[in-house]
User: What shape does this take?
Amino acid sequence: MLQRKGRDISKISRAFYIGRFQPYHIGHHTVLSSIAGEVDEIIVGIGSAQRSHEPENPFTAGERVVMVSRSLKSLDIDYYVIPIEDIQRNAVWVSHLRSMTPHFDLAYTNNPLVLRLFEEAGVVVKRSPMYQREVYSGTAIRERMLTGAEWEHLVPDAVARVIGEVGGLSRLQEICADDLR
Ligand code: ATP
Ligand code: MG
Assistant: This one.
């Protein structure tokens, strides 16, 4: 019998998890670390993939793929990181996801809409708990980047490096600035 981690690989369990990851932070990473202990493979969906260069969505899908992929290297798990564009039609959102991803057996989320859409589509869903939400939130991190407060300790080292490489701090500050006179 072919085995991985002592389990029959013909019965690999694969989980799905989605976020916008603007940016990917320690809260997300804590959730994925915990999921990694429960399944064999994880699919991470990069939501609102088409959005970038906006105050609430400063980073491109490609930049977010690198943030998540490099961060997950430190976990003992096989993973796929897949950009998912918005379709503005919630009723068929799960079919849209499925057309873009490998098969998954269950999904983890704490978002009520995502939970509802998966349940209506017959997907097994597990709740992912919040980890220190008052500290680890994309909104709070972007706010810190704008005000010059420290933010690097709130994201995995790999994410801070990606943001540095792409000039993310100045990008966010410039796209939030008033028009030039
Ligand atoms: P934003 O403030 O920009 O919405 P966010 O921190 O909520 O950013 P998202 O990419 O929107 O991050 O979230 C993806 C998923 O991760 C959501 O279901 C969200 O509830 C969850 N999440 C966000 N912060 C945490 C956290 N600290 N612990 C656990 N899960 C979190
Ligand atoms: Mg959010």
Q: What stands out?
A: The chain has a mean pLDDT of 94. The beta strands are 3-4, 7-8, 14-19, 41-46, 78-83, 106-109, 124-127.
